[in-house]
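Marked as duplicate of an earlier ticket. Keeping the data here for the record.
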Amino acid sequence: NEIAQSIVTHTDYPFVAVLAHRVRRDEVLEVFGWDSSKDFVIDDDTSTFLNTLQINTSNSWLQSGERNRLVQLDSISSSQLAGVLNCSVPNAERLKANLALKSLYLIKLSARQKLVGLIAIGFSTPLTELYGTDKLLLEQLSEAVGVAVDNKLLFEENQLIVNELQQSNEKLKALDETKDEFISMASHQLRTPLTAVKGYLSMVIDGDVGPVAEAQKPMLNQAFNSAQRMVYLIADLLNVSRLKTGK
């Protein structure tokens, strides 16, 4: 609302609304903020309606090269106004009925050669054209507001990306912790049966359970050495797990 409030405060315009793209909502312009002078009272229902108003960017005028447009609200039907704003006819009827405006001056907001929004200036008197200082002021104002809106949208987009990265990072940390817990648990579970296998092989090789044929000894030794390598590997995994958990 700061932009609209600033314009109303420093001018004699009774109503100002700024519409802009929301983050990742390029297909519509939503009310970014609006304000009205003290003499121009807007009831709560109209206020709620204005806060939810949307204009689709497929609007033929928004797609055209024309930068601004003056709309005579007294001489235009609700269906025609709906066509201008590319909104529903009921919404256009509500705008005409609830906003005691005679004219609406629409100015496109651009930044980095792209449409970023729209300013709507409401007048209590019917106007056929904007002259002199008003036209010059609004043209200069539209450039500054376009840059300000674009900067705000870029900031919001960056904040959204930062938040998404933080959430992704938290998920990755949780997955990493789960992986470490799994490795630790699996290593403990593997070490017990491997110790038994290695012990029994050692007893067989040493002849504790009976004589061993010469042809069997190389195979038993190979099995014992493989079991020993597995024990060392599991010990390494447990050490890595302890290092990561600070133990």
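See parent ticket for discussion. The chain has a mean pLDDT of 83.
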